[in-house]
């Protein structure tokens, strides 16, 4: 199964990578390719869900350099043992991994230890705009208070909620008419949403359809009060919002109430030096304030310590490929409560786990 577009929408992607665009509101739509085809770098990728449970990682921590596949890795299609351009992910306390399976128009979960088959937990039929359907979902998180999934249903320009209760067959709309991309939630259950086409991040009280601007909103650009294609998010305990400002090749931190952000990683143009990023996507911040970034175009995950002038590669960086120590566009990023690292390896159609050492 591969998603197809509803009537009134046009596939602006490809046969394998469906991106459904309402041509009348294309300015808010999710991105397709962000650079020329010759560079083969796309940010049609979902985010690792930023979550207020900041992980406690020792200062001298290292990770195994060879990852183990814990979801997918069996080719691109719609079987329960497969993924299709996976995007964002969320790792629960019991190490269950919930994945936005973008190309299959569904959300799947893989329980710890079950590396054979996942379980479809939201949608999974054909692409559509019904309450029982999704269209190119980019990100997902778990709302513990209601034991539900909150999903960026990007192709339908909405954020939806699906109960995790057995037998659930449809979701409900939380926010409509929004070109969402990445999601995060703080401890007060305010929801943060990046709006890719409007170059901004908004905060919503659940049940509110308007929201408050918390980052960007000054048009597309590279000034400190601007964003350019924001994708994934992380919110810390001080309610500072970290934004993967993907098309500016930087990560920004916007303190609560700030009118402009601070560059905390990259910002030196696209490149492979340790001072640079290339279309960053998934981000996580640990309790020591260190920033972890899925540096998509450089096929690596890097760590940026506060005040440092350059980053450290923690996994990957061995060229584009399908080896256990390689990525083919790393996208979603998360840690479990033990400090093990999970990376959505998009074009290898898999999720890799790297054990902390």
Brief rundown of the structure:
One of its GO terms (cellular component) is extracellular region. The chain has no helices and 27 strands. The chain is an all-beta fold.
Fold and architecture overview:
It is a single chain. This protein is mainly beta and 357 residues long. The chain has one domain: Neuraminidase (6 Propeller). Helix content is 0%, strand content 38%. It has strands at 10-11, 20-21, 50-51, 68-72, 89-91, 97-101, 106-110, 119-123, 137-143, 148-153, 158-163, 172-176, 180-185, 190-195, 200-205, 212-216, 230-235, 241-245, 250-254, 262-266, 280-285, 291-295, 300-304, 312-316, 330-335, 341-345, 350-354. Strands 3-13-14-15-16 form a five-stranded mixed beta sheet, with no helix packed on it. A four-stranded antiparallel beta sheet has the order 4-27-26-25, with no helix packed on it. A four-stranded antiparallel beta sheet has the order 5-6-7-8, with no helix packed on it. A hairpin with a 4-residue loop joins strand 18 and strand 19. It starts with 9 loop residues before the first strand and ends with a strand. Mean pLDDT is 89; it is low at 5-9, 11-28 and 32-51.
